[in-house]
Design a protein that fits this description.
Blueprint (H helix, E strand, L loop, with lengths): L1 H24 L10 H12 L5 H16 L5 E4 L1 H8 L3 H6 L6 H14 L2 E3 L8 E5 L6 H18 L11 H10 L17 E4 L14 E4 L1 H7 L4 H8 L4
Antiparallel strand pairs: 1-3, 2-3, 4-5
The structure holds zinc ion.
The site of zinc ion has 8 residues, from helix 9.
Length: 241
Amino acid sequence: MKETINSIRAALDELEQNQSTDEVERVLREFSAFELPQITTDVVDFLMPRLSTYEAAFYWYMFRHSILESGDQYVRTSVRRFQTDVVRSVRGRRHKGRQISEEQVRGSSRSLESIGAIRKEGEPGREGTLYKVLTPEEIEACREAMKARQTEEAQPVDVKTEVDHYNVRENRHEIFERDGYACVYCGKQLTRFTATLDHVTPVSVGGDNNYDNLVTACLSCNSKKSGKPLGDFLADHDPPP
Ligand SMILES: [Zn+2]
């Protein structure tokens, strides 16, 4: 009896250990509904031009089963799944067979890895290999193209302010950091994905995009304040007792 209990305990310990090592590897990041359209746009604009048809198909498949489905960046998949679930040609429908060779699948996932679009996390298991799906912001080649386009786009907008802290992404972070990633109106703690910038003096009444006219706000406060000048908003938002 005691032996049985001990062996069960050992098995449980082992199970727990395996699970925790798997979990430790994963840096979970919750994707909010607000950033998904931007990420998807970035994938189409900056990553897709770098991929072959197969690579693109695999990337979208993994994207759908990670970021879109579970909200984190991890997906376990296998060569076989790529062969049967991702690429279905006319012939494939008739034969229900695997249409793309194992070598082709491996080749495509290797080049996705070398671009940095996906990353193998650990060794292949029975359920396939665990991959991390990277977003364009995390892929170096895309990041550079994104930066180049941002500077291009920001220039014509930025006529009256010396430094645009609204349209240039790197500058936005300066504001968030200054405010400690907390909403200046309600104090809610935010992340770089949930934080928004609010114009203290609205653009509609001449507010500009410089450092002093921008504050960190949560989406709720930002949309409540909308085009109101600060004084009006505070009066509505926090009525005196
Ligand atoms: Zn707020």
